[in-house]
């Protein structure tokens, strides 16, 4: 998901927030997990009292594994990239709740490159300048990545560049 926070501010800059699409809030995810857990444990307890004692521990392990997968998925969907194209600098901040890493490129020399693979691998969207580069939008689908490449190319003011790996 690509959101533009600020368009043409005082310094002529633009700010974009790029994050994964989140299909469900944390509260909704906990509710779904609680429902699945209740039904799963009810069935396991019924089988346990019918004499199939190993169903309950394996059902518990299965529900613990499902909870871990839900948690990891929710944790990874919190990732954000904030791309600010200012008058002089293109900056990229990445992190979950706050910036964990910060990269800056001189706008005059920055290039937006959509690096396409010759096979079935997805493309990579890179911001590159003076031998340094950062990949942005790695969690986006192909169409969103191509759209972000067009938006960033227009915002940075460079020619569109594409590479074939």
Biggest beta sheet summary: 5 strands, antiparallel
| Structural category | alpha+beta
Q: What sequence of helices (H) and strands (E) makes up the elements? A: EEHHEEEEEEHE
Strand order, sheet with most strands? 1-2-3-4-5
Number of domains: 2
Give the uncertain stretches in residue-range form.
none
Distance between the termini: 26 Å
Which range does the strand content fall in?
25-35%
Report the average pLDDT across residues. Answer: 87
Q: Based on Cα principal axes, name the global outline.
A: elongated
Q: Indicate the percent of residues in helices.
A: 25-40%
CATH topology of the largest domain: PH-domain like
Count of individual helical segments: 3
CATH class of the largest domain: Mainly Beta
Task: Explain how this protein is built.
With 165 residues, the chain is of the alpha+beta class. The protein has two domains: 2-19 and 81-164, Roll (PH-domain like); 26-76, no CATH class. The chain contains three helices and nine strands. The strands form two sheets. It has a five-stranded antiparallel beta sheet with strand order 1-2-3-4-5, covered by helices on one side. Strands 8-7-6-9 form a four-stranded mixed beta sheet, with helices on one face. It is elongated. The two termini are 26 Å apart. The model has no long low-confidence stretch (mean pLDDT 87).
Question: Brief overview, please?
Answer:
This protein has helices at 26-49, 55-76, 142-156; strands at residues 2-6, 14-18, 80-85, 89-95, 101-106, 111-116, 124-129, 132-136, 161-164.
